């Protein structure tokens, strides 16, 4: 009894303070690790950029492909994952009345598993035994420890997914007939998508382990690549959906407005969850052995994701305009004067959103067979995902950090750090315009990705790439300044900023909106639909790859 009273007292006390201390510790730890990884990953990126411009010769104990593998793994897998869970769990705790003790155990166990996994992955890379890039395509063969580390990392992600499911299910049990609050609804969608996307890659890794140990001699290359991209393509969209959650839920609050239609927001989430996994073959458009109709289906499904994305673009501008008009904004683009451009929390989110227009357009080009043959495996692709991941996703995460870190640390965002953040945002944007612009252009001229500095015996074409490589190095240099400022800001807000209370800025639903229909809560149904769509896209090609399999490949260590 007494503990029960204590418990309610504790909940009340933490409610008053705005944040549950134990939950804050979880988010703080995840975010701290995330930004340390960004710092290291940033320097690795810079090393690559300088090397490719011919400005930096890497030492023999750390060659280009080790750096590249680590940069990819750190940025695409680790920075993003740690940030996402720090962010989502802070929101779940805030909206659903604190995390359950059981859920906290899940999240801490997940943390341990991910750290063990990351260490196991990094050791063989440093030993030059795993230069297989973050895609680890067979027949390139890494040390078994690399794959075992990936398993630990994936288990960590799964535990975080399950923790979120338990938390949301518990709330639903206690709030029968109600809609899950919007941030937690986003969190549910993101976790559902991640939970299922991890299954194909886990199967892949589990059969690569005996192969890398030498117990099995050969491996089916096409099956591996397909299982990888069913995950890899979805992962990218998981980070996109995470960024989107801030645009829909947080951005309207920061400008003093209200959210866009609650029903349609939930429909966008459901659509992204159902259609995502099925675009994987657009990464394999040039791969042999996939029949044309199957490729076409994946292209169609990839383009289908454009639909909820366009809905998002529409929604955001509708919110800006509506809010601005209420505040007296006039004319077609008058909203633009009313936006808080000097507020880093908004500015970063806005640029993150705006960058998705060119990023998405480039993506549509790559999804088209004929156009992709021009840019496939060139620097164009690297330019593309530094826009999608490096701006749309990373800048959204940076923007979120300016209120999330003070919120969980019981501190406030000072005008100085806000100013620093605005400068950081512009440096990052300009750096990425330089770097990504140069990458896109030089890719059109044929410069390959994943290739350390070479002039191909002073071949004229290769020499023609050099000015762009210089622009890339300039962009990379600006970006590393951006990384340092960002990490400094996070450390400051976490440990040194003045104490005080910061709000978790969740915007309210529109006034006099019609009630959201309850079918949006039928996750069981949406998951079944998703699995049917996935089956439609993958059963036939995977069966074909296995039944009509060519001879398997032994492993190669090309480095
Ligand atoms: C300081 C900032 C950064 C710099 C200077 C940088 C630079 C580079 C360069 C030069 C490459 C490609 C090289 C090649 O293909 O040979 C690369 C690859 C890559 N970058 Fe970055 N990058 C930065 C930040 C980021 C961020 C924030 C992300 C994602 C969140 C990211 C994700 C990736 C990925 C996934 C690859 C592909 C690795 C591969 O092909 O295996 N980078 N980066
Ligand atoms: Cu994709």
Outline:
The protein has about 550 residues and is mostly helical. It is built from 19 helices and no strands.
Provide the β-strand percentage band: under 5%
CATH superfamily: Cytochrome c oxidase-like, subunit I domain
CATH class identity: Mainly Alpha
The biggest sheet amounts to: none
Number of contiguous helices: 19
Quickly give the CATH architecture.
Up-down Bundle
Level of helix content?
over 70%
Shape: globular
Bound molecules: protoporphyrin IX containing FE, copper (II) ion
Instruction: Indicate how many domains the architecture comprises.
Output: 1
N-to-C span: 65 Å
Descriptive terms for the model:
single chain; 559 residues; mainly alpha; Cytochrome C Oxidase, Chain A; 72% helix; globular; disordered N terminus; binds protoporphyrin IX containing FE; binds copper (II) ion
């Amino acid at each position: 009894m007494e503990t029960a009273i204590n418990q309610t007292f504790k909940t009340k006390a933490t409610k008053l303070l705005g944040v549950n201390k134990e939950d804050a510790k979880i988010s703080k730890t995840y975010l701290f690790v995330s930004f340390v990884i960004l710092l290291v990953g940033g320097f690795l990126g810079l090393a690559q950029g300088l090397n490719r411009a011919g400005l930096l010769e890497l030492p023999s104990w750390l060659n280009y492909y080790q750096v590249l593998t680590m940069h990819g793994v750190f940025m695409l897998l680790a920075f993003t994952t740690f940030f996402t869970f720090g962010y989502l769990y802070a929101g779940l705790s805030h909206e659903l009345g604190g995390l359950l003790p059981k859920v906290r155990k899940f999240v801490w166990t997940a943390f341990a598993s991910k750290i063990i996994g990351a260490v196991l992955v990094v050791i063989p890379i440093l030993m030059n035994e795993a230069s297989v890039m973050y895609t680890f395509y067979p027949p390139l063969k890494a040390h078994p420890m690399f794959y075992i580390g990936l398993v630990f990392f994936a288990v960590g992600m799964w535990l975080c997914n399950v923790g979120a499911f338990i938390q949301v299910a518990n709330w639903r049990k206690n709030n029968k007939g109600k809609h899950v609050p919007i941030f937690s609804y986003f969190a549910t969608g993101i976790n559902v998508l991640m939970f299922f996307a991890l299954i194909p890659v886990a199967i892949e890794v589990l059969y690569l382990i005996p192969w890398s140990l030498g117990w099995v001699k050969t491996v089916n290359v096409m099956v591996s690549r397909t299982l990888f991209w069913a995950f890899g393509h979805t992962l990218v969209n998981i980070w996109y959906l995470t960024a989107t959650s801030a645009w829909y839920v947080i951005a309207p609050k920061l400008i003093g407005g209200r959210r866009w239609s609650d029903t349609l927001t939930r429909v966008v989430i459901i659509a992204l969850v159902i259609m995502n996994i099925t675009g994987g073959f657009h990464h394999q458009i040039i791969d042999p052995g996939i029949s044309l109709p199957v490729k076409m289906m994946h292209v169609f499904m990839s383009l289908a994701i454009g639909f909820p994305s366009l809905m998002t673009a529409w929604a955001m501008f509708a919110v800006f305009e509506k809010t601005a008009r209420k505040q007296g904004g006039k004319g077609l683009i008058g909203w633009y004067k009313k936006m808080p451009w000097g507020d880093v929390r908004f500015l970063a989110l806005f640029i993150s959103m705006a960058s998705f227009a060119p990023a998405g357009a480039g993506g549509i080009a790559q999804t088209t067979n004929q156009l992709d043959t021009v840019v496939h495996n060139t620097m164009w692709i690297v330019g593309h995902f530094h826009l999608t991941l490096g701006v749309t996703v990373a800048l959204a995460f940076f923007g979120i950090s300016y209120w999330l870190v003070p919120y969980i640390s019981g501190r406030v965002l000072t005008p100085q750090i806000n100013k620093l953040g605005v400068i950081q945002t512009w440096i990052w944007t300009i750096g990425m315009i330089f770097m990504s612009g140069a990458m896109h252009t030089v890719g059109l001229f044929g410069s390959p990705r994943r290739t350390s500095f070479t002039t191909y015996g002073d071949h004229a074409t290769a020499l023609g790439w050099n000015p762009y490589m210089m622009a890339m190095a300039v962009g990379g240099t600006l970006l590393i300044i951006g990384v340092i400022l960002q990490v400094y800001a996070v450390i400051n807000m976490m440990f040194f900023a003045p104490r005080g209370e910061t709000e978790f800025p969740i915007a309210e639903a529109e006034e006099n909106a019609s009630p959201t229909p309850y079918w949006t809560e039928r996750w069981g149904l949406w998951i079944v639909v998703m699995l049917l769509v996935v089956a439609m896209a993958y059963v036939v090609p995977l069966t074909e790859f296995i039944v009509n399999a060519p001879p398997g490949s032994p492993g190669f260590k090309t480095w």
